[in-house]
Amino acid sequence: MARIGSFLVLLYLTYAFTLCICHDDESNYGRERGNLFPGFYRSSCPRAEEIVRSVVANAVARETRMAASLMRLHFHDCFVQGCDGSLLLDTSGSIVTEKNSNPNSRSARGFEVVDEIKAALESECPNTVSCADALTLAARDSSVLTGGPSWMVPLGRRDSTSASLSGSNNNIPAPNNTFNIIVSRFNNQGLDLTDVVALSGSHTIGFSRCTSFRQRLYNQSGNGSPDTTLEQSYAANLRQRCPRSGGDQILSELDINSAGRFDNSYFKNLIENMGLLNSDQVLFSSNEQSRELVKKYAEDQEEFFEQFAESMVKMGNISPLTGSSGEIRKNCRKINNS
């Protein structure tokens, strides 16, 4: 694993030199789009992206799984109050942390890496780069470091001064949700079915806890029977690792073929009825339009990569705080002056 991590770091650092430099016309275009644009920190903190990239590269070299964890933090942040870093706040004063919500408790991780990123940014250019932007960049870098696509990240988000435990509990799709509920929760954030399928493709990396898929193995419909859409030999293998009771924290790969490599294998698994989570498999089994998207991405990895990048930018633009709204936190875990 260490060798793989070191190779990925080298690959990404080599790639980083090829990143294009934003020009003034891009900056002006970004301002017209709502104050988010790739060159936001060009003058105030020109090394911001380089700093984030370096910290994330080191973290993923230590533990490849961290790439998936950072991408998940960005997703869970954006679905609650928009991409404003609210998930990063600890409980303090009037703040009730989102970290204790059902989707995040005992599963959200990577906060220490975000702390490390923020400390490095504050050392380079104090009070300049928001935690929300740092997390958005970290998600992009996590994709690239595991072999996935890159994209220009519009920047300029500011940090919230509040969190929403109820929003975290109610807005984020759950592993056992039905297809219609999943699509509805994405739609509520301005994301469409294409975004649902493409962004779900991030499950090509990372792991999930036994408690998130146990229902499919033993009691899918409340009648004591397993999920019939789950491939039988795959289900038998999962039952050996995930008991009927206990072992909630036992991990299984979201993508049985390449949990550490960002590719289109996830979609190929769905076609074989080997999606780990119910929320994964319903993309193939419950709707014709989403099924066709799954087939398309399974056949054409570049098509998937292109749409994933586009959908990540779209998700990253959910209700950002800009201008004088919010603040630039000095510490991502607490609001300033608290």
Description:
With 338 residues, this protein is mainly α. It is 49% helix and 2% strand. A two-stranded antiparallel ribbon has the order 1-2. The termini are far apart. This is Peroxidase.
Q: Which properties best describe this structure?
A:
338 residues; disulfide bond; disordered N terminus; Haem_peroxidase_sf; globular; single chain; mainly alpha
Count of alpha/pi helices = 15
Residue ranges: pLDDT <50 for 5 or more in a row?
A: 1-33
Structural class designation: mainly alpha
β-strand number:
2
Distance between the termini: 41 Å
Q: Give the SSE order as H and E letters.
A: HHHHHHHHHEHHEHHHH
Q: What fraction of residues sit in β-strands?
A: under 5%
| Average predicted local confidence, pLDDT | 90
Sheet with most strands: strand arrangement: 1-2
Radius of gyration: 20 Å
- Helix-residue proportion: 40-55%
Taking the sheet with the most strands, its summary is:
2 strands, antiparallel
* Overall form: globular
Short structural description:
The protein is mainly α and 338 residues long.
Write the layout of secondary structure elements.
Layout: H1 2-16, H2 24-32, H3 48-62, H4 66-78, H5 111-124, H6 131-145, H7 165-171, H8 179-187, H9 193-200, E1 207-209, H10 210-218, H11 232-241, E2 251-253, H12 265-271, H13 278-285, H14 288-299, H15 301-316
Antiparallel strand pairs: 1-2
Helix pairs in contact: 1-3, 3-5, 3-6, 4-6, 9-14, 9-15, 12-14, 14-15
